[in-house]
Amino acid sequence: MTEDSRVNNDLAQNMRVINQRIEQACVKAKRNRDEVRLLLATKTVDVTRIEKALALMEKPLMGENKVQELEEKGPQLVEPRPDIHFIGHLQSNKIKHVLRWAECIQSVDRLSLAKKLQNRLEFEHKHIDILVQVNTSYEDSKFGIQPEQAVELVKKISQFDRIHIKGLMTIGLFSDDKDKVRACFQRLVAIQQQVIAQKIPGVAMDELSMGMSGDLEIAIEEGATIIRVGTAIFGKRQYPDSYYWNESKR
Ligand SMILES: *Cc1c(COP(=O)(O)O)cnc(C)c1O
């Protein structure tokens, strides 16, 4: 088998496995399969492999963590043209680059960023969808607003007319203790319910982006609408994830 066809087979096989896992989790949770959207987490993955994986998807969706990778890959991703979400820590001086490629920023976690985002959107006569990222595991190494401050942040961001809040995003605790992982996702749902109860004008809470390669079943059981999967499709990454998650916290 050539190297190329081996890679293809692996990707196709991995996608099949992921789709089965999603389906089974939906059955267990008594949810419709189409309530859960798969997002390919494509950090460090080259365009050729991303395209092959996207071609296997009905509604191609991918997420990048780094502005630099987004800028490299964005112009090359033409067929099929995926929806692109930004899922990494966003520095405000890089906003304009992200706006060129992403239809949703899942990682808005502070008011100062939202303010600069609104300014840039006004300048460009644009709008954007966002999710508010919550640090449901309370780990220092992770970005995201503290759960206790999340509702307040949503309320404040809702005043920016070019930013459309669609829901919440979180990264669950990395742990073999499923109850602790589940507690993170339940925390996100609790915040979703609090926000809904406040009936904040212009705020939608339909999306819960939670669950990754290791914990997507738990996330789906708890109500995830977007799961973000990298390793289980593309294989292990070369860099430790800390490189992507806490660049300015080290
Ligand atoms: C890398 C990454 C994922 C995917 O993680 P895997 O464990 O490889 O599936 C999901 N969300 C974010 C924010 C990521 O950075």
Topology:
Blueprint: H1 3-29, E1 37-41, H2 47-54, E2 61-64, H3 67-73, E3 83-86, H4 95-101, E4 104-108, H5 111-124, E5 128-133, H6 147-157, E6 163-169, H7 178-198, E7 207-209, H8 216-222, E8 226-229, H9 231-234, H10 242-245
Parallel strand pairs: 1-2, 1-8, 2-3, 3-4, 4-5, 5-6, 6-7
The site of pyridoxal-5'-phosphate has 14 residues, from β8 and α9.
Modified residues (N6-(pyridoxal phosphate)lysine): 43
Cofactor: pyridoxal 5'-phosphate
Function: Pyridoxal 5'-phosphate (PLP)-binding protein, which is involved in PLP homeostasis.
The name of the CATH superfamily reads Alanine racemase
Average of pLDDT: 93
Helix-residue proportion: 40-55%
The CATH topology corresponds to TIM Barrel
Count up the helices. 10
Largest sheet: 8 strands, parallel
How many beta strands in the DSSP annotation? 8
Shape summary: globular
Which assembly state applies to the chains in this document? single chain
CATH architecture: Alpha-Beta Barrel
Physical arrangement of strands within the biggest beta sheet: 7-6-5-4-3-2-1-8
CATH class annotation: Alpha Beta
Heteromolecules bound: pyridoxal-5'-phosphate
Number of domains: 1
Radius of gyration: 18 Å
Helix/sheet category? alpha/beta
Function: Pyridoxal 5'-phosphate (PLP)-binding protein, which is involved in PLP homeostasis.
Protein name: Pyridoxal phosphate homeostasis protein
GO molecular function: pyridoxal phosphate binding
Cofactor: pyridoxal 5'-phosphate
